[in-house]
Design goal:
Organism: Alteromonas halophila
Number of helices: 12
CATH architecture of one domain: Alpha-Beta Barrel
Keywords: Signal
CATH topology of one domain: TIM Barrel
Shape: globular
Protein name: Amidohydrolase
Strand content: 15-25%
Radius of gyration: 28 Å
GO molecular function, one term: hydrolase activity, acting on carbon-nitrogen (but not peptide) bonds, in cyclic amides
Number of strands: 16
Cofactor: Zn(2+)
CATH class of one domain: Alpha Beta
Order of helices and strands: HEEEEEEHEEHEHHHEHEHEHEHHHEEE
């Protein structure tokens, strides 16, 4: 009988499989190589806004005294807005026949108030330790944290601020750290999530702090303990950020040259600081004393970045010329100082004095109470200036509440003044907004009626305010 080699088919079969596997492996390696050849890019907006404007109706408000937010006042004015935008401002306007008409005789219209220093949502009401999420007091440099991840949308303060005419606000981390983290700009339309309130495409801010707070928090935790320690901490962090930027620049240059370089390790802290150095993130710095603000402007020049705004700045009047020269705003209180040594040397004329020197002055709250009456805070500062001989018209003073904070936040092209094409963010007041007795009658955000004094049933109510289920209420 002829013998048959039964191993041959098995060997051939194995060879086919081996060749196939070899081909698969080669294909996989090729795919892996191709994958590594894709340039790594960081998503700079991983939490985009999901804000949707309120439903709006084409509206004409007539017979009002109008302050446009950029220094002008118009008597017997008319303002027409539709599709979320300001369409026209003047004394005689042609509008569609179906537009809603509001006769505002004896009333005033201003841009919506913008508070560029608020902690609503990160220090919500009622003030409890379990909800105190504004300060990551674990390290003097926490640039990697983002305030938006602490915002509690159910804070009743948002609705209270809306009743005071606030249409936009910046939520900041606290001031315990040298670098406290990123801020977020919100539309003051109370909603379910932070992203539903997030101002579309508003630049991020970086909260920094100088002076007593970082020393008090970290003096016995390894430092800084002194002002010179604070400054050393800023400088080291900026130097580290420059190194981080160089690594990524080298990676991109080598990639573009076809060298297939190793991707640098991502560092969230350095990423935010690099965003400041590249001009994409705005610096908002808690600082009281004139000498400290001057030093910080020197550090700014050393590392080639821009401080957008000093916050609190109770001694800004001493260096108003330097602030103007360096294009740095000051966000200030009207009459709050003396509560600690660095806040000792304040004056009532601080805001008008800074304004009169040609620098950028802003009225801010830093308070869940003050944010409800920012028009009165501006009125106090204005009247203090008048008594000191600083004759600033009311229409010019209103820039402290709208145009200047909008510029501070990088959103002036969208809001902050009543100009054609801008967002219809405005307030109809039942009298002169510089009067203690005046209230916001209607507040519009993107043309939608967000608050109506005459309709309490429409006022926003936080879930937190609805109360608790009591015994016997549940079946």
């Amino acid at each position: 009988m002829k013998s048959v080699n039964t191993r041959l088919p098995v060997l051939l079969s194995g060879l086919v499989c081996a060749l196939a596997l070899s081909g698969c492996t080669a294909t996989a390696k090729s795919a892996d190589k191709q994958a590594t050849n894709n340039k790594v890019e960081i998503d700079t907006n991983p939490y985009p806004s999901t804000y949707q404007p309120l439903e709006s109706t084409p509206t004409l408000i007539k017979n009002v005294t109008l302050i446009d937010g950029v220094g002008n006042k118009i008597d017997n004015a008319m303002i027409y807005f539709a599709e979320g935008k300001i369409q026209a401002v003047g004394t005689s306007l042609d509008v569609p026949a179906d537009a809603k008409v509001i006769d505002g005789e004896g009333k005033w219209v201003t841009p919506g108030i913008i508070d560029n220093h608020s902690h609503l949502g990160v220090y919500p009401s009622p003030s409890t330790r379990s909800h105190a999420d504004g300060n990551e007091m674990t390290n003097p440099v926490t640039a990697e944290v983002w305030a938006e991840h602490s915002v509690w949308p159910q804070d009743p303060g948002f609705g209270r601020a809306l009743a005071g005419g606030v249409t936009t606000l910046q939520i900041l981390p606290g001031s315990a750290n040298l670098f406290g983290g990123r801020s977020v700009v919100l539309k003051n339309v109370p909603n379910r999530t932070m992203q539903d309130m997030k101002f579309p495409d508003a630049p991020y801010g970086m909260k920094m702090a100088c002076g007593e707070n970082p020393k008090r928090v970290y003096g016995e935790k390894g430092g800084p303990m002194t002002n010179m320690g604070n400054v050393a901490g800023y400088r080291q962090a900026w130097s580290d950020a420059q190194d981080y930027m160089r690594k990524w620049e080298r990676y991109e240059a080598d990639f573009d040259a076809g060298k297939n370089p190793k991707v640098p390790k991502r560092d969230l802290q350095m990423e935010t600081l690099a965003g400041v150095l590249s001009g994409d993130i705005r610096v908002h710095m808690h600082c009281y004393r004139a000498d400290e603000m001057t030093i910080m402007m020197d550090v700014m020049k050393e590392f080639d970045y821009q401080i957008g705004t000093f916050h609190h700045a109770v001694e800004a009047y001493k260096i108003a010329d330097k602030l103007a020269k360096n294009d740095v705003c000051s966000a200030m209180w009207a009459d709050w100082w003396g509560f600690k040594m660095e806040a000792y040397d304040g004056i009532r004329e601080n805001i008008p004095a800074v304004h009169a020197a040609g620098a950028c002055a802003i009225v801010h709250s830093d308070s869940d109470l003050g944010i409800q009456r920012l028009n009165q805070e501006a009125a106090k500062a204005w009247s203090d200036g008048q008594r000191a001989g600083l004759d600033i018209p009311k229409e010019e003073a209103w820039v402290w509440l709208s145009a200047n904070p909008a510029k501070s936040l990088g959103i002036f092209e969208q809001t902050g003044s009543l100009e054609q094409g801008k967002n219809a963010d405005l307030v109809l007041w039942n009298g002169d907004p510089f009067s203690t007795y005046t209230k916001a009658e209607k507040v519009y955000i993107d043309g939608g009626l967000a608050y109506d004094l005459s309709a309490p049933e429409t006022w926003p109510v936080s879930d937190f305010e609805l109360g608790q289920v009591g015994e016997g209420d549940v079946k």
